[in-house]
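I would love for you to help me understand the pair of lines that follows before we discuss the fold together.
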Amino acid sequence: KEEEIMVKVASIKNIIQDLKPRQQKTMRSHARHHTLKHMKAMARYLKNGATFSSAHNKAMKNVGK
């Protein structure tokens, strides 16, 4: 099984800059467990008004971990 590379916090700085401060903080800790593709998808859902949980679930369903 291919090992997914988890995201370094610094690499999501530009992705999360448009989010609210609380969302940014949560996304930083979330990034350690997920791929960049997952984080980009989540940021997109959050910017469109999704909750953190629903954004995570959509990202898991559509792009995976």
